[in-house]
Automatic annotation (TrEMBL):
Its EC number is 2.5.1.145. PANTHER family: PHOSPHATIDYLGLYCEROL--PROLIPOPROTEIN DIACYLGLYCERYL TRANSFERASE, PROLIPOPROTEIN DIACYLGLYCERYL TRANSFERASE. This is Phosphatidylglycerol--prolipoprotein diacylglyceryl transferase. It holds the Pfam family LGT. Belongs to the Lgt family. Its main location: membrane. One of its GO terms (molecular function) is phosphatidylglycerol-prolipoprotein diacylglyceryl transferase activity. It comes from the Bacteria. A 1,2-diacyl-sn-glycero-3-phospho-(1'-sn-glycerol) binds at R139. It comes from Mesosutterella porci. The chain crosses the membrane at residues 20-37, 57-77, 89-114, 126-144, 239-259. InterPro entries: Lgt. The gene is lgt.
């Protein structure tokens, strides 16, 4: 059985200011997004230029941070935060939601599309293959912090790991690393390769939503539910319930793209 290395979550300090690895992972993810987006801008059929990227990235960062925080507060602990609104933006206390971050990014894309006179769906298809990069680095940050560990498993399981932060030394699934591999590496490879050539408009976004939904739904079976939630209705976790609409939306976009009457557009 492996033991979590218990990394120091603080990368370095400058006087009273501490810079945490989790925040650095976010910055690395945003930087990777920008660099990969520049590559995609070389192909004119994608509809975006390098000059558009600074605004797109800025709005996207706001969407991820604000949406991720609001999603955590009101998807996972609404009862608490409704009565403690002053704590909603206490992001130093921790708590971000991928589902909320996705809604925030959707809002950011919508705002960018309106202000820059772009197609929302075409912009989403441009952005979406880069999203798994951010998911990858975010889960690396979770692993460094020793949080969001998995459920108890057999000590003989090849990847069994004890997380002292959990308050016990039981063998658990390193679910953060599973998500790195599935939502990060696998989903990036799938969406990047799929979107290398023009596809029906909305289809790349559909592939991402469907792929993320399936990966997250499966990983939830070995991820320890949040202590304040536990297992919800029908034996599913809150994460699984939040993921189901993404799967349905992804399927709808793919069906509309391939079976709809609209002609293929470069996305």
């Amino acid at each position: 059985m492996l033991i979590h290395p218990q990394f120091d979550p603080v990368a370095f300090s400058i006087g009273p200011v501490s810079v945490r690895w989790y925040g650095i992972m976010y910055l690395v993810g945003f930087a990777a997004f920008y660099l990969l987006a520049r590559l995609r801008c070389r192909e004119e059929w994608r509809g975006l230029k390098v000059s558009d990227l600074e605004d797109l990235l800025f709005y996207g960062i706001l969407g991820v941070v604000i949406g991720g925080r609001l999603g955590f507060c009101f998807f996972y602990q609404p009862g608490f935060y409704i009565h403690h609104l002053e704590r909603v933006f206490a992001i130093w206390e921790g708590g971000m939601s991928v589902h909320g971050g996705m809604l925030g990014v959707a809002a950011a894309i919508a705002y960018f599309s309106v202000t820059h006179h772009k197609s929302f769906m075409k912009t989403a298809d441009f952005v979406i293959p880069l999203a798994p990069v951010g998911l990858f680095f975010g889960r690396i940050g979770n692993f460094i912090n020793g949080e969001l560990w998995g459920r108890v498993t057999s000590p003989d399981f090849p990847f069994a790991m004890a997380f002292p932060q959990s308050g016990d030394m039981l063998p658990r699934h390193p679910s953060q690393l599973y998500e790195c591999g599935l939502e990060g590496v696998l989903l990036f490879t799938l969406t990047w390769l799929y979107s290398r050539k023009p596809r029906p408009q909305g289809a790349p976004t559909g592939v991402f939503l469907l792929g993320y939904g399936v990966c997250r739904f499966l990983v939830e079976y070995v991820r320890e539910p949040d202590w304040f939630l536990g297992i919800r209705a029908l034996g599913f976790t809150r994460g699984q319930w939040l993921t189901m609409p993404l799967i349905l939306l992804g399927l709808a976009l793919l069906l509309h793209g391939y079976l709809g009457r609209r002609p293929r557009g470069a996305s």
